[in-house]
Design a protein that fits this description.
Elements: E1 12-17, H1 26-35, E2 39-41, E3 50-54, H2 58-66, E4 73-75, H3 77-86
Parallel strand pairs: 1-2, 1-3, 3-4
């Protein structure tokens, strides 16, 4: 039946979504995925079909790389949102995340301007 709430019933998903500060923000996405019939894992396993990832923990990347081929799809949170909006299992290709090029939790890059401060010295000549 189109639009049924079991559109992700064949998906076994691990979610690692973090804020820029490194706080866990996975719960919202887990709820959305469960609402579409997905099964949620507490850690990546070989049965995993999808990994929803945004600025996750370094250990998640390590565990993913240790999984045997074929590895799960690694998708952004956009995939979850679009699945919810369309009430369908949407194509993963547009939402793939390259774990070799992504940041991890707490990996905040700050550019610090180089400033040279000159203090004024008063020289006394005797």
């Amino acid at each position: 039946m189109p639009g049924s709430l079991d559109v992700l019933k064949n998906c076994i998903i691990f979610v690692d979504v973090r804020t820029e500060e490194g706080e866990d923000a996975s719960a919202l996405f887990i709820d959305m995925l469960r609402g579409l019939g997905a099964r949620i894992l507490i850690k990546p396993r070989k049965s995993c079909t999808h990994l929803v990832y945004k600025a996750g923990l370094p250990s998640t990347i390590t565990k993913f790389k240790l999984l045997p081929e074929p590895r799960p799809y690694v998708v952004s949170i956009g995939w979850v949102v679009e699945c919810v909006e369309k009430r369908a299992h949407v194509e993963e290709t547009r939402f793939l995340v390259n774990l070799n090029e992504t940041g991890v939790a707490g990996d905040i890059q700050v550019s610090i301007p180089v400033c040279i401060y000159i203090t004024h010295f008063i020289l006394f000549w005797i």
